[in-house]
TrEMBL record, chain A:
Lineage: Bacteria, Bacillati, Actinomycetota, Actinomycetes, Propionibacteriales
Positions of the UniProt region annotated as Disordered: 1-21
Family: Belongs to the UPF0145 family.
Organism: Nocardioides panacihumi
Coiled coil regions, renumbered to chain: none
Gene3D superfamilies: Hypothetical protein apc22750. Chain B
Name assigned to this protein: Heavy metal-binding domain-containing protein
Pfam families, per database record: YbjQ_1
Automatic annotation (TrEMBL), chain B:
Organism (species): Nocardioides panacihumi
UniProt lineage: Bacteria, Bacillati, Actinomycetota, Actinomycetes, Propionibacteriales
Listed name of the protein: Heavy metal-binding domain-containing protein
Record-linked Pfam families: YbjQ_1
Family: Belongs to the UPF0145 family.
Matching SUPFAM superfamilies: YbjQ-like (SSF117782)
Alphabetized InterPro entries for the sequence: UPF0145_dom_sf, UPF0145_YbjQ-like
Length: 300, 276
């Protein structure tokens, strides 16, 4: 079978707005078709069917983003532990890796936006089980990819599809307990700190000591990322955010002789949810079972 | 320990204060799974926020005598002190949120590729607060432990629920560590063992010594909390790249106490699962 049927028009070159033509064609065809694809496992599909969700198709969003220029400055100051961490959240718009963080966030945001565009084209109410991944393509180019399954309810339709990286079974459990996922929140921050005299001294001793400079760097960057994360989660109007991924990367850079800086980048990803009932107890109570076999406990 | 002593960045304090109840009734974060989140709610606790503490630590240098069984106290102290720093910062965050406790605590160590013997010690968990009229609330004292700190526990949301159902409450994460250098065999000794199936008493003794020290220290922490016992104890051997003969023996568990003298443990019901 030919990949594209003969009666379909040839895709025109993409102007960079909306969905790429090939994706647009696939969505139009999928919306007409009675066959709905999904990335769900059988238990997930069954769990979603139990709360009235049926899959309408698998959806994708991706972007290749160039994140080259990082900004300048390393927070250098003369003296013992006098340097400070310059973090993307606290710095001016050019310093402390702010341009880099903006580019990376733009990457994730655009991938998710395109995924939602595909879901909207299919008339979906939500996208579940979203997997977010990034691939380094060499140079400073990175691909950001979001893949998920668009679902529709039998009941009232939402104005804008929700997104979640929780599995179908988890979404079903949440709905049973009176919570509904509202969206994916992402928080990114990066920071740089000059290795000052204090850091050099604390890392070259024979004794035990906390390295204050590095501790300051990782703490500041992580707090900054959590700050961004919560701000974005609030925009979704959620009451709770369930963090699914929490990463921190530290690396060093030596721009010139006797000048060394350390960089840190933190990433938080999670799903916001809001409760649709008021009251202390969930509308449906689950049956709690205490399994007595140790094997399952040790496996998890 | 207040926030100011724990060296938490200024921005973080502002953020935590804005999450405090009353001033902003809104969003809370947690790294609980969906199952854990729902069970913690069902246990009558509300997650307040993700709490985290971190310390980047330079672990000192100490070498064991080649043929001597000995604890490397400098390294033991480093591994304990750095974890303690991370935990204290996490607890200070929970305290700022007005939490009763922290569940699902994870302690992680990551040796960094830059710099010799530099590691980041991280403590992460979810701060929780009991509902105002909690049916299991301990009479006469709060959910916090006898040091006035929020309780900490490395138990999952599932275990937390089960523990409360059985009438126990967590008090604190207790740990003990011992970095031990196990002696090399002397030449004649090794020659004597060759081709024979025998116990090597000095190795056995070394492993005993190290584990007993770690577990004893954990026990002492639990006694300080006035605990009834410690559950979920794990005894780990962590090599950390100090060579084959130097290993960290690390004991960690959650100290608990009974909520009431007359608590009863529900009899389990038999369930035949249909999955294999």
């Amino acid at each position: 079978m030919a990949p594209v049927s003969a009666d379909q028009p040839r895709p025109v070159p993409w102007d960079g707005h909306g969905l790429p033509p090939q994706a647009q064609l696939r969505m139009e065809r999928a919306a007409r078709s009675k066959v709905a694809g999904s990335l769900l496992s059988a238990p997930e599909a069954a769990a979603l069917a139990a709360v009235g969700f049926s899959p309408v198709g698998e959806v994708m969003g991706c972007i290749v983003q160039h994140a080259g220029w990082a900004g300048y400055g390393c927070g250098y100051a003369y003296g013992w532990n006098a340097s400070r961490t310059v973090s993307s959240g606290s710095a001016t718009s050019w310093a402390g890796l702010t341009p880099y963080v903006k580019a990376v966030y733009e990457g994730w945001h655009t991938a998710l936006r395109r995924l939602v565009q595909e879901a909207t084209a299919l008339g979906a109410d939500g996208v579940v089980g979203i997997r977010l991944s990034e691939t380094h393509l060499g140079g400073s180019n990175r691909e950001f990819l979001a893949l998920g399954t668009a679902v529709r309810t039998d009941a009232a339709t939402a104005t804008r599809p929700f997104t979640t990286d929780l599995s179908g079974s988890d979404v079903s459990k949440l709905l049973h307990a009176g919570w509904v996922p509202t969206g994916i929140a992402i928080g990114i921050a990066a920071g740089v700190r000059h290795d000052d005299y204090g850091v050099r001294n604390q890392t070259s001793t024979w004794g035990n000591t906390q390295v204050d400079g590095y501790t300051d760097l990782v703490n500041t960057v992580r707090h900054d990322a959590r700050d961004q994360f919560e701000r974005r989660a609030r925009e979704h109007g959620g009451e709770t955010v369930m963090v699914s991924s929490m990463k921190l990367r530290v690396w060093e850079n030596e721009p010139s002789d006797n000048h060394r800086d350390h960089y840190a980048e933190a990433l938080f990803i999670g799903t916001t949810a809001t409760s649709f009932h008021r009251g202390a107890v969930a509308p449906t109570r689950s049956l709690s079972i205490l399994p007595l076999d140790r094997t399952r406990e040790t496996a998890s | 320990m207040t926030i100011a002593d724990a060296a938490i960045p200024r921005d973080a304090i502002n953020r935590l204060n804005s999450m405090r109840e009353g001033e902003h009734r809104g969003l809370f974060t947690s790294d609980l799974s969906v199952n854990e989140f729902l069970l913690v709610r069902e246990a009558g606790f509300r997650p307040l926020g993700l709490v985290l503490g971190s310390s980047v630590y330079h672990v000192g240098l100490q070498l064991g005598r080649w043929s001597k069984n000995q604890e490397l106290t400098t390294l033991s102290e480093a591994m304990y002190h750095a974890r303690e720093l991370a935990m204290t910062r996490m607890e200070a965050e929970a305290d700022a949120l007005g939490a009763d406790g922290i569940v699902g605590v994870r302690l992680e160590i990551e040796f960094k590729e830059f710099g010799e013997s530099i590691a980041e010690f991280i403590a992460v968990g979810t701060a929780v607060k009991a509902d105002a009229e909690h049916p299991l609330a301990p009479t006469g004292h709060s959910w916090r432990n006898n040091l006035g700190q929020p309780f900490t526990s490395d138990l999952s949301g599932q275990d937390f629920w089960t523990l409360l159902q059985a009438g126990y409450a967590p008090l604190g994460l207790t740990m003990g560590t011992c970095v031990y250098h196990i002696a090399h065999q002397r030449f004649w000794q090794a020659l004597g063992n060759m081709g024979a199936n025998v116990e090597i008493p000095q190795f056995t003794e070394a492993l005993y010594d190290a584990r007993e020290l770690a577990m004893g220290r954990m026990q002492a922490e639990a006694e300080r909390l006035d605990a009834d016992g410690i559950v979920g104890v794990q005894l780990r051997s962590l090599p950390h790249g100090w060579g084959g003969h130097t290993t960290e023996f690390f004991a960690i568990g959650t100290a608990i106490r009974a909520l009431r003298e007359d608590h009863t443990i529900a009899k389990p019901t038999l369930v035949l699962p249909l999955s294999d």
